[in-house]
Amino acid sequence: MFFAVVSLLTSENSPAFSDLWNRLGRIFRLYGVEPVEMPHVSWHVSPVYDMEQLEYALKTRGEEIQPVHARISGLGIFTGKKPVLYLPVVRSPSVHDLHLTLWKEISPFSFRQELNYSPDEWIPHITLNRKVISCDLGGILQELCSLDLRSEIYLDNFAIMYRDDNHDGIGNIFPFSKEKFV
Hints:
- The N and C termini lie far apart (about 35 Å).
- This protein has 4 helices and 11 strands; from the N terminus they run βαββαβββαββαβββ.
- The radius of gyration is 16 Å and the shape is globular.
- The protein is about 30% helix and about 30% strand.
């Protein structure tokens, strides 16, 4: 089991992205691949957190910050035995600053944190698939490359996601201040 601090993307906070996500889902299903259940941007990942301190930090930080406007552009692949397709999130100053602040604030409450999410290595992204793609990867890529994979997204929450036996679940959600977008 592992946990992640994420920002969930929904049709309410990112309607243009929601339309793109639905198109991507149709393409994946044509090839027998299920997309990730809940699109999100991951900020921090660890198998163990002090949940009381983590929840307090996320609630407090969420109340203090405004939603962040961000963009996705293009398509990426994390290579390896189990390739993962993803949509890169542009690492704008506001996205970078939020990640850096959050990393510094919640790292003391985690044990064996995933260093791929550290400020020096983090690639902001939205994962498209988690399961091994056992179909024609070239076919999926050809379909995806024909799409305009640019969209606006709005990061307006922190959530604690957990994964157990290939199932994702959501714990508490901590909304950001609703004053205005950055």
